[in-house]
Design brief:
Helices cover 76% and strands 0% of the residues. The chain has helices at residues 2-12, 21-41, 46-58, 62-75, 80-92, 96-109, 114-130, 149-194. The longest helix has 46 residues, at 149-194. The protein is elongated, with a radius of gyration of 29 Å.
Length: 195
């Protein structure tokens, strides 16, 4: 009972405050400094440039992020992540044709990634719609590769059944001990009063 009361009090209390904007800016500044220091020590690692680009994006410094992404692609042209990051910045800057080319390269490097293919399909579908030819390709949305509703529902029900059985198996010994105690308590009480 004390644990339930404590839990209720905790749930009614205010949620702890997240980091302030100043703290978030400070963390981004520190991250930028660390990545720049790592790049100064070993400038040939594309992942450092990619990480720096992501920090610069979070700061809204798009031109610098674009430069860092381009350097990451130059250093590691076989990394789909670098091409994807460059495509995201190019798209954000309104350079859709270049973004599509970078996403195509990312898909070529990682053809088994449904996320990359969905991003490419979505971007090309939007570009086609913007071109004004009246044709809208609705097959390029991100949920195309997902299972149908019936399959998802069947999997949810199966998972719920497995969890239910697991909960029963875990709680059965506790319930048995409680029932045994309830059955034995009157017997013990009767023995104590009769003797």
């Amino acid at each position: 009972m004390p644990y339930a009361l404590m839990l209720a009090l905790l749930l009614q209390g205010p949620l702890p405050a997240g980091p302030t904007q100043d703290a978030a800016r400070e963390q981004l500044t520190q991250a930028e400094a660390r990545y720049r220091a790592a790049i100064a020590i070993t400038p040939g690692i594309g992942a450092y440039h990619e990480s720096l680009a992501l920090v610069l994006e979070r700061q809204g410094r798009w031109e610098e992020a674009l430069t860092a992404h381009r350097e990451a692609v130059r250093l590691d042209p076989q990394a789909p992540r670098s091409h994807e990051g460059l495509a995201a910045v190019l798209q954000r800057m309104g350079r859709t044709d270049e973004a599509i080319r970078e996403l195509q390269e990312a898909v070529r490097l990682d053809p088994n990634s449904p996320e990359l293919q969905a991003k490419l399909d979505s971007l090309t579908a939007r570009e086609t719609a913007v071109a004004g030819d009246g044709y809208h390709d609705y097959s390029g949305f991100a949920d195309d590769h997902q299972a149908s509703w019936t399959v998802r529902r069947a999997m949810e029900l199966t998972f719920a059944a497995v969890l239910g059985i697991s909960a029963f198996v875990l709680l059965a010994p506790l319930a048995g001990a409680l029932l045994l105690g309830l059955v034995q308590l009157p017997r013990q009480w009767l023995r104590g009063t009769l003797t």
